[in-house]
Amino acid sequence: MTTRATREQRRKTPWSDQLARSHPIFWPVRAFAEPFVGEAEFPSVAKIDAWLAPYARMRFREQVNRPRRARHKTASQPYDESIVVAGEVPTREGSWHDFMNALVWAAFPTAKRALHARQHAFVKRERMGGEPGRRLPAHDALAVLDEGGVIVVSQRPLSDEGAIDAAIANSSARAVVFGHAIFEAIAIGGPWPLVRAVPLALPHDSNDSRLVQGADQALAVLLASERSPTRPQDLPRISLNRVLCTRVGIDLHSAEPRGRAS
Prior knowledge:
Number of helices: 12
Oligomer: single chain
Number of strands: 5
Strand content: 5-15%
């Protein structure tokens, strides 16, 4: 799907207040989507801020879209800098992508802040080095995690793709969707981001809320440490269809998702 087709798909997909309630993959963020049930139209950024900011520990402010040709000419606070310095997440009105991002912020506030703090540090380093806009492999790894990351929680360390798949298949590990582009892809019917796993060894907890909180804290610690991924290849591949969707009896697509959401 082309970038233009993706934008059209986003534009034509109507608001649904039941999506997070009806699709089982949304379980990590479902509690934070509940206040929006009953909304007849897409929640405004002001309403998203009012309901989710206390959980996200971050404000959501409206991001004004500028003409594409003028974007590079307009001095504006970079996205990560807005989060780290101002404590505000730029959010577009009527955007599935940004709405899902807000839900993930509410569910994983500590990990999201750690991720953007690390990205901001890379941006500052590139700027100070006289190479603004240059992206390091570690920066790309963080972007992949932010958009298409799946946290795999188990009691013992999982080191490779085969071990991750086997652990999820035999229920000795749980897969927790973290990447907001995955949630958006389900909402609008694709395209799919690059999906990668972050295996975390944590004590077993059958309570969903405590599991998410534990994953949030553990991922934040990982991102602030020397063990943080330094390239996308450091994040093992994970099959979203086979491992997540088919286990709950839902076949989203007949083939493995390909492509990347922009």
